[in-house]
Specification:
Protein name: Sulfurtransferase
Pfam family, one: DsrC
Radius of gyration: 14 Å
Number of domains: 1
Strand content: 5-15%
Number of helices: 5
Distance between the termini: 32 Å
EC number: 2.8.1.-
Largest sheet: 2 strands, antiparallel
Order of helices and strands: EEHHHHH
Shape: globular
Number of strands: 2
Helix content: 40-55%
GO molecular function: sulfur carrier activity; transferase activity
Subcellular location: Cytoplasm
């Protein structure tokens, strides 16, 4: 499988995750999001995407679970009402998995739970 973005072919796994992290950029993120049913990436979408990328790229390939994403967004948005359910507004197929896909990161191998 591959994506064609701005005239460049980007190789992916059979599930659509990028093979090469260096192929990712904002245009690729927008393309993947559109392919996955997200028409527009808002500032809050980007907050989640950038958090996941920062954790993976700058914290020993860490892939935060939903609980940690919620805590980070509560702090970033200064909103204690943010919960897992509210993150589904941004990534309706599963905030941790769908956002990871859009962020151009490898598929999570986590088993779930906390």
């Amino acid at each position: 499988m591959a994506y064609e973005v701005n005239g460049k072919t980007i190789e992916t796994t059979e599930k659509g995750y990028l093979v090469n992290l260096d192929d990712w950029n904002e245009d690729v993120a927008k393309f993947i999001a559109a392919q996955d049913g997200i028409e527009e990436l808002t500032e809050r979408h980007w907050d989640i995407i950038n958090f996941l990328r920062d954790e993976y790229l700058n914290n020993a390939s860490n892939q935060p679970n939903m609980r940690n994403i919620v805590k980070a967004m509560q702090k970033l948005w200064d909103d204690k009402k943010v919960n897992a359910k509210s993150l589904y507004e941004f990534f309706p197929k599963s905030p941790d998995k769908q956002a990871t896909l859009v962020a151009g990161l490898p598929e999570s191998r986590r088993k779930g739970g906390y």
